[in-house]
Write a sequence for this structure.
């Protein structure tokens, strides 16, 4: 959680000015976003409970990307190309791109430093080369999976819709981040080591670490004028760092 709090601070420092353009959000779009989240949350709960394998990286592309894109474009009466651009699938300008990469670099330096110095971790200095070697591979893998699909829905569709409806970016970021955290509850409760089987421990984890992560991703998305690639890169990097550190800890 400390990593994401620091990212929030660095993002606010690096991106002092924010250019925002709100558009009218159809009421049906807000209803769709919230009901679609509830649908997929219940689907994940059912999938975990009965081991149905309904929620995976393939289904995320369908339920977090394809269907929301088609339905949002339909509700807003826009072309798919325009909807993708509004969601944030667009090019970086040079300055924004460099700042985003700097945020990612700061994040990875902080993560590696804290894990290397921590007394409770098995990571040693000798493990760093192996971790660094795996990191780019995992980063690309995450960009193609959870980093893209989850950011597409929670930032590009849900947070953007909330911003347009509420005209209050901070409130929209907070709401979408809480929902982002709650989305992970079925996985925490049924699968994750250390918290599985405990409702309290699972909620503690998702309402701290994952909500903080959502705020960091959402703030970066907002500060880069809704360029979705910024939050995709940071989200993917954070997942990749966890995977690489896990490989590095293996003996």
């Amino acid at each position: 959680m400390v990593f994401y709090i620091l990212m929030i601070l660095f993002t606010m420092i690096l991106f002092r000015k924010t250019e925002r353009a709100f558009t009218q959000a159809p009421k049906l779009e807000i209803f769709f976003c919230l009901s679609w989240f509830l649908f997929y949350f219940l689907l994940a709960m059912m999938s975990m409970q009965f081991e149905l394998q309904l929620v995976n990286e393939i289904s995320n592309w369908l339920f977090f990307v394809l269907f929301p894109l088609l339905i949002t474009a339909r509700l807003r009466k826009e072309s798919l190309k325009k909807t993708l651009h509004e969601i944030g699938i667009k090019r970086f300008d040079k300055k924004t791109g460099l700042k985003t990469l700097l945020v990612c670099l700061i994040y990875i330096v902080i993560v590696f430093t804290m894990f290397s110095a921590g007394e409770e971790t098995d990571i040693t200095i000798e493990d760093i080369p192996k971790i660094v070697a795996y990191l780019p591979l995992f980063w690309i893998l995450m960009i193609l999976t959870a980093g893209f699909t989850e950011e597409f829905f929670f930032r590009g569709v849900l947070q953007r819709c909330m911003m347009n409806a509420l005209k209050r970016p901070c409130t929209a970021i907070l709401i979408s981040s809480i929902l982002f955290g709650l989305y992970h509850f079925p996985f925490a409760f049924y699968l994750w080591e250390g918290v599985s089987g405990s409702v309290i421990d699972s909620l503690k984890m998702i309402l701290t670490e994952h909500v903080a992560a959502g705020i960091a991703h959402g703030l970066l998305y907002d500060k880069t004028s809704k360029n979705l690639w910024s939050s995709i890169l940071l989200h993917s990097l954070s997942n990749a760092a966890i995977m690489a550190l896990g490989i590095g800890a293996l003996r």
